[in-house]
Write a structure and sequence with these properties.
With 211 residues, the chain is mainly α. The chain contains six helices and no strands. The protein has one domain. Helix 1 packs across helix 2. The longest helix is centred in the middle third of the chain and has 33 residues.
Length: 211
């Protein structure tokens, strides 16, 4: 069971990585080429702790998603499911891992849609507010992607060690709020209207208009 589980986890994470690369890298190249022509508000971190948690959690996450699956598949290293939790009922483990997989998949989907929306923004001749694709679901789809990864990965791998990723969530929330302030200064009323309709990092439930 453990071997099959490791293969499933590793295969999923490698697929997860490939989808991310195919969606992000072409647009990242465009962003780099156009970086001098057009700039999206991106305020600095408030302090060194926030920088460390933000950058450290991001790099660690991608190490787990990219390098660990390969080591697990080709060298048989157990870098995922923990021996500590072997006493837990197998049905609970399966349910937990399915939930984690769903969270990871939703996060990846919204993150990829957000990158497409950012790419469309770069096609504009002047600065404009990105409000389509992933940005129509949450205001910061890329950050939603990372936060969902920090929550989904420990559940999907069934390893409590990966719960350390949760430490990076407050940094992502703080940076999201800082970027919101920069966007409001840049786009004013347009952003305030957008803010009322779309949630920061969680989708807003649409209210039915009263007659």
């Amino acid at each position: 069971m453990n071997m099959i589980n490791h293969i499933i986890i590793s295969t999923y994470l490698i697929t997860y990585l490939i989808i991310y690369i195919l969606t992000h890298f072409p647009l990242d190249i465009i962003m780099y080429i156009k970086s001098n022509a057009i700039d999206y508000p991106n305020p600095p971190f408030r302090n060194s702790i926030e920088t460390f948690l933000f950058v450290g959690s991001s790099i660690s996450f991608w190490i787990c998603v990219s390098i660990f699956p390969l080591l697990s598949l080709f060298f048989g290293m157990n870098l995922f499911t923990s021996q500590i939790l072997e006493f837990i009922n197998i049905n609970l483990q399966i349910i937990t891992q399915i939930l984690g997989g769903i969270i990871l998949t939703i996060g990846l989907l919204i993150g990829c849609l957000g990158r497409i929306g950012r790419g469309l923004y770069l096609s504009k001749e002047k600065p404009t507010l990105a409000k389509t694709w992933g940005h129509s679901i949450v205001r910061h789809p890329s950050y939603f992607h990372y936060i969902s990864g920090f929550i989904g990965l420990p559940l999907f791998t069934f390893n409590p060690i990966y719960l350390l990723f949760i430490l990076g969530i407050p940094a992502y929330i703080n940076v999201s709020i800082s970027e919101d302030n920069a966007l409001e200064n840049e786009f004013g009323e347009d952003f305030r209207i957008y803010k009322k309709k779309v949630g920061l990092l969680l989708p807003k439930l649409k209210k039915k208009e009263l007659d």
